[in-house]
Amino acid sequence: MTTVRVRQHVNPLSQKYQTPLAGLNWPHYYANLQQPLHLDIGCARGKFLLDLAQVHPEWNFLGIEIREPLVEQANLLRDRLGLTNLHYVFANANASLRSLCEPGSLAGVFIQFPDPWFKRRQHKRRLVQPELVADLAVCIRSGGFVFLQSDVLKMAQQMRDRFAKQPEFVDPAIGQWLETNPLNVPTEREIFTLEQGQPVYRSWLIRN
After folding, report:
1. How many Å apart are CA 46 and CA 54, to the nearest integer?
2. Domains in the chain and their CATH numbers?
3. Fewest CB atoms within 10 A around its CB: which of 50, 96, 121, 150?
4. What is the pLDDT at residue 122?
5. Nearest alpha-carbon partner for 17 in 63, 74, 64
6. What confidence score (pLDDT) does residue 80 get?
7. How far apart are CA 64 and CA 37, in angstroms?
8. Given pLDDT bands bounded at 50, 70 and 90, which one contains residue 34?
């Protein structure tokens, strides 16, 4: 399959990304709707979920990505593998989360290496905004989790702090970074960062 080339940066505040995605026809994409649903926000090319869906066939997975060509390619790869516990959607999570996920419907959420938008004037474009955290507090069931990763320390701190300020989330590590990935399934960015000898900052928060 030809690799799709797309822009690395997409402004999520652009008007074309503000329309909420309509609800999914869930039985069309998942063979067993009783399996716990896990959401990867900003799934890029989808390889992380593609691997995880094979490691955990007893879980369902949904990937959200704002760059449509990547979503199309990811679903083609999913189909080639015949996976019935995985689907990818083209959407802006900040605009579509509540229309996609009912309260308490998520068992876990992954937010990994989101665009840091380094310039201060661009911080409003960052994925983990207080509104998204509040939405996730509704959508994640009690006992569910949020897994955060970044190779940018200030970005990781901001994400963790925003979840920690939401009373529904608890940080069992009490502000300490996880040394290893508890899922044992790395993202492409995670592999690259570690191969360069650079640190990865990880947090695992529980929905109480």
Report:
1. 13
2. 35-207 (3.40.50.150)
3. 121
4. 65
5. 64
6. 97
7. 13
8. very high
pLDDT tens digits along 81-139: 999 999 999 999 999 998 999 999 999 999 999 988 567 776 886 889 999 999 999 99
Nearest 5 degrees, angle CA 164-CA 168-CA 172? 55
What is the C-alpha separation between 30 and 7, in angstroms, rounded? 30
106-112 and 169-170 beta bridge pairing: unpaired
DSSP track, 66-114: S-HHHHHHHHHHHHHHT-SSEEEEE--HHHHHHHHS-TT-EEEEEEES-
Active site residues per annotation = 115
Question: For 63-73, what is each residue's pLDDT tens digit?
Answer: 999 999 999 99
Q: Is the dihedral of CA 184, 186, 23, 122 positive or negative?
A: positive
> Pick from 172, 113, 183: which is nearest to 143 by CA?
172
The type of residue at 86 is L
